[in-house]
Amino acid sequence: AAFFGAVAPGNPVVDSFEAELRGVLGFLRRLGGAGEAKPQQHDLHRRGANTLFNIWIKYKPRLPEWYYNEKLLKVGDSLTQIKEYKLALLQCYGRYLQQFISGNLDDIIDDVHRFKSTFFPNGFRDKNAALTFRALQERNVCIYQMVCSSDRYLQNQESLQTCLNVLSSLRLNMQVALPQENLCWLIYNGTIHIYTICRHLMMRGQSAKVLEYLLWASICMESSIPLLSVHYLTWRATLYTAVSQCYFDCQAGIHGEIFARRGLIKIDELKQLENNSSSLENSETKKIFREATLKMSVMIFKRAVYESRRKPKSCFRPKLRVSLKEAQNLPWPRTTTERLLTEMFDGAAAQFLAILEALSDSSRHVLRPAPPVPDEIEIRDVISELFFAGLEILSGNSIKKQKVLVRSAELHFTREKGVSGDAAVKFIKLAFSYEEWDVFDSAIEFVVNFLQAQDDPTWKKAEMELKLLTLMQPLLFPRKFKHGFSISGNNTKEARTPHSSEKKEMCRSECCSGSLKHGEPSHDLMILATTVFSCVSTSMQNIQPDKEILVDVVMFLWQKCKTGLQRIQTSGSDYLKYIHKYKAYQWVRVLWIINEVIQKSSIADTNVVMLAEITLHLTAILENVADS
């Protein structure tokens, strides 16, 4: 290329190189969206990978090293954008790093001195240092994405260990880059990658293993002077909140509150510096500080609301419990919990968000209701008061259409009085989980009416989930409706369940109490099975019910189905006679529905043993019926 002059557009070697790269990238991009049959797609993908390999080999001796290396990383970035992570790792980032080490890079992630001498022999002021840092970081991102592609629920121990190795490698890369102020962009991007991986692992119950990495990301944001500005405060507060959430997940709530209070001090320090350096504070800056402060306050409230009510073990003073039914007609704040909410938060939206976080527990499942842990009188009182306050806010304020995440690590701050639709749905799920049936029965009608009035199909997912909860309720807890809280206008009032509902519930209770004919599934169970089938039969994958709810519904149906199937299988060789006599064919239908739901949804890889057992049972029954 140097023979033809400057390495720039117009140089025939450069133009040819760029044209061939554009061609192969365009081919791979079109291939990703074409959706051909798999064998053909694999052949075409292999052709594209071989073409890219030949381009690198062909032009390496013809181009200057600096230009060639820059292109390796730029093409790698383009490949990651179209989710060609393996190709980007092997053909771009890996190829760039081969100039430093030919062996396994993971062997040196625990040795900082060897890491420096291997990848930065000329020091950090070398012109290629920034490219090397970038290649190392993007290599880790590609490895993580490849793990997610093959095992997105991280069920294999090997996948989990690979993610932890990636976190260690990212931390080492940031540790070496941290003293270099001009590499602050690398630190910022590194914290984003660490947070993304850690949140994924937290959802898989690995909070104890990722805590140290989230702490590291938070400290990095504080240690880089350019990242201490107000512009990055929202992200820093998100990291603080994730650390606190991690502590709560590890049953170390006191450390979560302490870290949140520490974060509040850091935010206040920055606010003081901002006030001293500038006499004018614009509305955007005020909003950033309000949002960051809210995130920390929510995490403080998450523990304080319970601890403030605990009695010392040595204290036996009597406690006067407030009757929530008697407090309904009192003005807000009516209870100790509502008074604490009023003191700590301004506006119904912030208060409702604090209630959701105080009730959230990563160890709880929506469809596995259970009392609070620890099961203490004071804790039960606080939980009841939180639901009592949440129902009042929900009934006294309109639901907003915006969809916002209610996990405190990703809060959306708003000063409006309205409660977001997602927050309202989350509240109902929590009420089901804690067996707060009065709140559940009162709130669900109000929220379902809102969801049914929306035209946006994305709200159908929430509607499906609430429908499944409603159908599961009488099956899990066959009972008559008690006195509940009903919503009328802007007030929460005690009301009896309508007579028609009493009849319906009595019928449900009878159906679940064993008054059915021998071998026949209950009517409610059949409705649940057909409903969950219709939920996953939609062509839109993104509006299917939440995976956790789907898994629990399928597990419930399967446990019920096993009993009916055992009767069929113990009936001897005369399958057809037994099935028709006792209408046991309904159990076969339920079994078929369970199998179809697993196949049509994304839960097949969550419990492969159950899937195999269901398939074998269905196959055996159909074969025996055919032979009868």
Separation, N- and C-terminal Cα atoms: 80 Å
- Contiguous helical run count: 25
Find the structural class using helix and strand composition. Answer: mainly alpha
Q: Whole-number radius of gyration? A: 30 Å
How much of the sequence is in beta strands? under 5%
Number of strands: 4
Q: What are the secondary-structure elements, in order, as H or E?
A: HHHHHHHHHHHHHHHHEEHHHEEHHHHHH
How do you describe this structure in short?
Pfam families: CFAP54_N. It is built from 25 helices and four strands.
Keywords:
mainly alpha; globular; 628 residues; 25 helices; single chain; two-stranded antiparallel ribbon; 2% strand; two-stranded parallel ribbon
